[in-house]
Write a structure and sequence with these properties.
- This protein is an alpha+beta fold.
- It has 15 helices and six strands.
- The protein has a four-stranded antiparallel beta sheet. A two-stranded antiparallel ribbon has the order 5-6.
- The longest helix is centred in the C-terminal third of the chain and has 21 residues.
- The chain binds a DNA duplex through helix 6, helix 12, helix 13 and helix 15.
Length: 283
Amino acid sequence: MHDYDLDATLNCGQAFNWRRDGDAWRGIVGGRWVELHSRAGKIIARAETPQPDWSWLEEYLQIHVPLETILAEFPTDDASLNQAVEACRGLRLLKQDPWECLASFILSSTKQIVQIRQITGLLRSRFGEQASVPIGCAEAFAFPRPEQIAERTEAELRECKMGFRAPYLLDASRKIAGGELDLNRIAGLPLVEAQEVLMQIKGVGEKIAECVLLYGYGFPTAFPVDVWVARALREFYFRGRKVDLPKLRRFASSHFGSQAGYAQQYLFHFIRTRRIQDKESGK
DNA sequence: GACCAGGACCATT
DNA sequence: AATGGTCATGGT
């Protein structure tokens, strides 16, 4: 896969279940331990036991998605977006488990990505089931299911450093475990209705709902606007002016077209990595 | 120590 | 409709 940038894809703030070890990425997908390498234009995968069928991983990584076709849907007269694509061509959107995605992004609000990794990691190791790993590898845990979270107390969840987000995660897990909310039903709904269903959960607003719809369900026009994307939109399309979130969202929905979600991810990764580089070069 | 982080919610104008 | 404060915790 010459057009698959594994580093960017696994480390661009859409998923929080990957750790780099040398040139390998290790994580849990669908409860299974897996290790990924990018080598000579190919992605090499290793699981704990031999896999007769890798379709679960191909689906997660969206291997079959033709990236060039998606990029061809981007607005052509957009220099900033073109620049973002050039900076990290090969960046992909994953197809994550909706529940894990929902729970992770409930925990994401006003948290840095390193901290989201820490919180979800604590949640796994305390409440998730231990996965089998190859000899010599660090222990790993599946993401706890809704029922496993729902039976905990708010105080127990707060011990995972999630602070005021604990009642939000508890509300989500209990609505789902209790059958009040069916995550399987969301996939077939129109975007706006799907978003409204998710926003019935306390602590889930427009942004978090769009993250779940984009990363967990693959709605191609979902366009989450966080502080970074807002920053990018204001700088690139409004000459740095103060523009409020509703206006930014309206602009995005009219400008980026049928693959707006992908465009969002390129802008997010572009402006974030640029900021990090600026800091490293002493600015 | 100040400021910020892949926000949401609620009270006040 | 639009601000503004608050929430918990840790990184830079």
